[in-house]
Amino acid sequence: MLKHFFIFCMLLGSATIVCASQLPDYPFIHSVGNAGIYAQPDIGEISFEITVSDAESDKATQQAVAINADILALLAAQNIPAADVEIYEVQKKMRAVEGVDGKPATVICDIKQSIIINVRDLSKWEGLTTPLLGTNNLGNFDTSFERTDRHKINDELIAAAVKDAQHNGMLMVESFGKHLGAAMAISSGKLKDVSIALGLATGGLSSDDAPKGNPIRNFFAPAPLRFTQSVDVLFKIK
């Protein structure tokens, strides 16, 4: 459930409140509105690396070429257009490996190549990722997901958060026999001057506001995305 937090404050005189010059000179209520939804992503991206090592440079190159061919065949089978695939330049390095038990040192050829696949139809996701994850010499997998209508979702959530703030403010003032007046200030972030003056905020991110990473990568079934919006509003009290 969405969490609401309200502050009701009647200003009786500037001399009665510290730093009152920062506060409105009329009776007001500070209301926070929140809105959030979970929505399934409709596009995704998977990235990985081809890594091959062999004492023979030609053999390592041939193996990398064969893996590339298998990946391209998989993409063709899934009808992934070439424009949605980024294949980076092959990186080839030679490294010396010391001999063991009196054996001479050898030179190993390491080949690495990065590939990024944009998946615009997630019904193809599992059919694409399952074979890739089962392919030898592929590693460093990563995934990300998004909604193509993110801006529309955010617009709708802001409108819902504003209504939530208005509803919450109305409930508070009516419990004191007052009426909610016009919105005098609104922000998609914290109204810091008011919040700090009232002891509601200290500036910076709180533990709830701090960005949190998602350590779980969804290689087989994309998880719903969480979208939230919050607004701070100062309403005049009638």
Automatic annotation (TrEMBL):
Lineage top rank: taxon: Bacteria
Pfam families: SIMPL
Keywords of this entry: Signal
Keyword Signal tagged: yes
Residues making up the signal peptide according to the UniProt record: 1-20
GO biological process: DNA damage response
Keyword Signal recorded: yes
Name this polypeptide is given: SIMPL domain-containing protein
Organism this protein belongs to: Solimicrobium silvestre
